[in-house]
Design goal:
The protein is mainly alpha-helical. It has 14 helices and no strands.
Length: about 290
């Protein structure tokens, strides 16, 4: 019985994760300019950014109408997935061959130093994933107000305020009572499938990847070589404080990630004047993730 429950939870998790993917693929495909056409890193960055924005839109919409429960979330995700699949199916440009042989394929050859850097980043990602599955979140801020308010939203199905932070006379507590912050809302989606917080910090890995890709692409856009761009991204991703924040509910890591991605998209739009890049300029991109 426990095995079946976990299997069912895994299926629900897949529905939540894959729901925005077709729409994200479609937007990735139209976000091609002449310079970065078929750039694997650029396409992955757009895919992950759009995925976060769509997930937050779903959660905000359901929370606003007091229906932020598992069944409405799954229904919303399925509708979104099917709608995106229809768009992909009827788009001649977005054939399976285009998606998997051009949009997300890299024909570049890597030097030994670049392979070493990429291997280091991949190994770090695996270690962080294991930490997310095996280590309990124990930092002060997460236990004080991040997790409690998320648990309350999960129970109520809407965005309510914690009584202990209301009219406390302390401006910090008063500010906390004005949650939701959108990253916590995104993390709740990963509580719902298993009805526990074992995977609550999993979206931080997405922010972690967005931060690395943004630094890499931004370095390339200002003239750095590919090797030094990779090295710069690797150095930032292996800073102990960055690694520490992956397995917590601090908003510092996602804030840094979306600041960098906003900066990269602003520079890309300024250079290409592509209307596709305009959807995520500095202010719009940050407003999608934070209040």
């Amino acid at each position: 019985m426990i095995f079946l429950e976990h299997l069912w939870g895994l299926l629900l998790l897949l529905v939540i994760v894959l729901g925005p993917v077709p729409i994200s693929l479609w937007l990735s495909s139209i976000n091609q300019d002449k310079k970065l056409q078929y750039s694997l890193a650029d396409n992955l960055l757009v895919l992950l950014t759009v995925w976060c924005a769509i997930q937050i839109f779903i959660a905000l919409t359901l929370g606003a109408i007091h229906q932020f429960f598992l069944i409405p979330v799954i229904g919303f995700e399925l509708i979104l997935f099917l709608s995106g699949a229809v768009i992909l199916f009827f788009s001649q440009k977005l054939s399976p061959k285009f998606l998997f042989q051009k949009l997300f394929r890299s024909d570049l050859s890597f030097s030994r130093a670049e392979v070493l850097i990429l291997s280091s980043i991949a190994l770090t990602g695996v270690v962080l994933l294991i930490k997310l599955f095996t280590e309990v979140i124990i930092d002060y801020d997460s236990l004080w107000y991040h997790l409690p308010i998320m648990a309350r939203w999960y129970q109520e199905g809407s965005f309510v305020r914690l009584d202990e932070f209301l009219n406390s006379g302390d401006w910090v507590s008063d500010a906390i009572s004005y949650y939701p912050f959108n990253w916590e809302i995104l993390c709740i989606l990963f509580v719902m499938p298993f009805q526990e917080d074992a995977l609550v910090a999993l979206p931080n890995l997405v922010a972690y990847a967005i931060l690395g890709l943004s630094i890499y692409l931004l370095s390339l856009s200002i003239g750095a070589s590919r090797l030094y761009s990779m090295a710069g991204a690797c150095l930032v991703l292996t800073i102990p404080l960055i690694i520490q924040h992956v397995n917590s509910l601090h908003v510092d890591l996602p804030f840094a990630a979306f600041f960098m991605v906003a900066l990269y998209f602003v520079i890309s739009f300024n250079r290409s004047r592509s209307s596709a890049s305009h959807f995520c300029d500095e202010y719009k991109c940050l407003s999608l993730i934070f209040e």
